[in-house]
Amino acid sequence: EVPAELRRLARGGQVNLDMEDHRDEEYVKPKSVFKAFTGEGQKLGSTAPQVMGTSSPAQQAANEAKASSAITIDESEPITNIQIRLADGGRLVQKFNHHHRIRDIRLFIVDARPAMAATSFVLMTTFPNKELTDENQTLKEANLLNAVIVQ
Q1: In this structure, are residues 70 and 104 in contact, taking their beta carbons and an 8 Å threshold?
Q2: What is the pLDDT of residues 63-103, one digit of tens each?
């Protein structure tokens, strides 16, 4: 009887088959050789480096409160909220005046996360992706009012 797998391959045509008789031999299971993965991996997600030296949650909250109080807000001027997504996975939301500069955001991040002071990092907008290179621009000039910034 021809197995169904071979009949499907033949599609109604002829099947050529070579057979050998091994009935008088004892079956020996072939040894399988373990071969570890030899390819290379691809990292998904951000290309930002890992930030080492994370502090305790209490210390982190104290640093964020200190950084927030270091930003001088003029209540008589227009105010905006900036959300900052950090390379370590954290998120900060801070109020700024429209006249604050991108440099002030960078200083706020370094105050809130002192471990990041030792590493260089860039600030980018989310959509459209644009690197914020001119740190002397005001938030209004850079069109960052109520924006999300990614470190």
Answers
A1: no
A2: 888 887 778 888 888 888 889 888 888 888 888 888 888 88
Go through the domains of the chain in sequence order and give each one's CATH number.
1-38 (no CATH), 57-150 (3.10.20.90)
Nearest to 102 by CA among 132, 71, 146: 132
Q: Are strands 130-131 and 124-125 parallel, antiparallel or unpaired?
A: antiparallel
Cα separation, 43 vs 49, in Å, equals 12
Q: Which of 73, 117, 64 is CA-nearest to residue 99?
A: 73
Which residues, including other chains, have CB under 8 Å from residue 81's CB and lie 6 or more apart? 93, 94, 95, 96, 146
Closest CA to 96 of 85, 84, 88, 86: 84
Q: Is 148 helix (H, G, I), strand (E, B) or coil?
A: strand
Q: Please tell me the pTM assigned to this model.
A: 0.59
Task: Report d(CA 84, CA 93) in Å as an integer.
Answer: 6
Q: How far apart are CA 109 and CA 2, in angstroms?
A: 73
Helix 57-70 / helix 102-112 crossing angle, nearest 10 deg: 150
